[in-house]
Amino acid sequence: MDQAGNIRKIIHIDMDAFYASVEQHDQPELKGKPVVVGGKGDRGVIAAASYEARKFGVRSAMSSKVAIRKCPNLIFVRPRFDRYKEISNQIRNIFFEYTDLVEPLSLDEAYLDVTYAKKGKPSATLIAQQIKKQILDETGLTASAGVSYNKFLAKVASDVNKPNGIFVVTPDQAQDFIDNLEVKKFYGIGKVTAEKLNKMGIWFGRDLKKADRLELIRMFGKAGNYYYEICRGEDHREVEPSRERKSIGAEDTFSADLYREEELEAELLKIADKVWERAGRSQVKAKTLTLKFKYADFEQHTRSKTLEPFYHSKNVFVDESIKLLRVEGGFPKGIRLLGLTLSNFMQEEPPKEAVQLVIEF
């Protein structure tokens, strides 16, 4: 529960085979094929595997040699971490539309506390469904979601119906769900610990629940107390936003390359609408506008314009966006992607004089 005594509504969003899915999205000829991101050399390691590759037993952290033995037709793609971070930021912007309580765990997953959501219906399940749809619409990628009243259950739930799934654990369902969950699937219990628990005769949550708290602490230290609580559905950790938001943006990858200026401007207006709406929801005042465009051959460029004191109206924002687009003077190679970002936010100035606070009793 939160400080007001309300049951928390926690969502865990986990992108599906994120790095590999980005590569399949950006290179449509790779769709439906066993793709891995990583090096192919003798010392190569798999960073991510598509679901088509996983069917052959290929997994992340596996050596490339072993992966090739399992799947001789494996397609290797070099990682592009700048691209993954770019899309991760785009997805995070979607999260911020619903809540400021976003705790990223990595580029491809995050916790969201939507107990007091900024928009949408007061249902964490419906919000999770909307976020999944929005991610798909804006990035072409799928995500899985877990919904529950604490971080542990939301994290475990997001893995139940992968890929592109959603699973909800309500307070009434929680204990039965945990009782029948294998301890090796508990978030926070690794392979070595799971094997140790198995040797103790503990295979499922219901078995773990029979263990004495002090005995678990003696054997596993502080983690033992965590195990004692999570098998009872207790996890009091709050979603902790760890980073200050530094930009707001949106982009679109087109199904066919665009060449004509009027077509590009029409698409740019749609993107500008999304960005300005997001900026309004977040109540930020941005000084810098950046236009990004990517040619059909994947060559990428950016153009920026900074205004003082900040972009104060949508008309100015849109006008400057179009000006940045027209600077290029034509796109003979065709454009496959357009994006706009607002950044360099104004910092609120602290009051010059101390203010006496009056507390009413």
UniProtKB/TrEMBL annotation:
Q: Which PROSITE patterns match?
A: UMUC
Q: Name one Pfam family in it.
A: IMS_C
Binding residues for Mg(2+): D14, D108
Positions of transmembrane segments: none
Gene Ontology CC entries for this record: cytosol
Q: Where is the active site?
A: E109
Q: Which residues form the UmuC domain?
A: 10-190
> Which GO BP terms, alphabetically?
DNA repair; DNA-templated DNA replication; error-prone translesion synthesis; SOS response
- EC number, as in UniProt: 2.7.7.7
Q: Does the keyword DNA-binding apply?
A: yes
Alphabetical keyword list: Cytoplasm, DNA damage, DNA repair, DNA replication, DNA-binding, DNA-directed DNA polymerase, Magnesium, Metal-binding, Mutator protein, Nucleotidyltransferase, Transferase
**Which InterPro entries does the entry mention?**
DNA/RNA_pol_sf, DNA_pol_Y-fam_lit_finger_sf, DNA_pol_Y-fam_little_finger, DNA_polymerase-Y, DNApol_IV, PolY_HhH_motif, Rev_trsase/Diguanyl_cyclase, UmuC
Its subcellular locations are: Cytoplasm
Predominant location category: cytoplasm
Superkingdom classification of source: Bacteria
GO MF term list: damaged DNA binding; DNA-directed DNA polymerase activity; magnesium ion binding
In this chain, the site described as Substrate discrimination is at: Y19
This chain's function reads:
Poorly processive, error-prone DNA polymerase involved in untargeted mutagenesis. Copies undamaged DNA at stalled replication forks, which arise in vivo from mismatched or misaligned primer ends. These misaligned primers can be extended by PolIV. Exhibits no 3'-5' exonuclease (proofreading) activity. May be involved in translesional synthesis, in conjunction with the beta clamp from PolIII.
How this chain assembles, per its entry, is: Monomer.
Similarity field: Belongs to the DNA polymerase type-Y family.
NCBIfam families named in the record: PRK02406.1 (NF002677), PRK14133.1 (NF010731)
* Protein name (database record): DNA polymerase IV
The species is Maribellus luteus
- Read off the lineage from the record: Bacteria, Pseudomonadati, Bacteroidota, Bacteroidia, Marinilabiliales
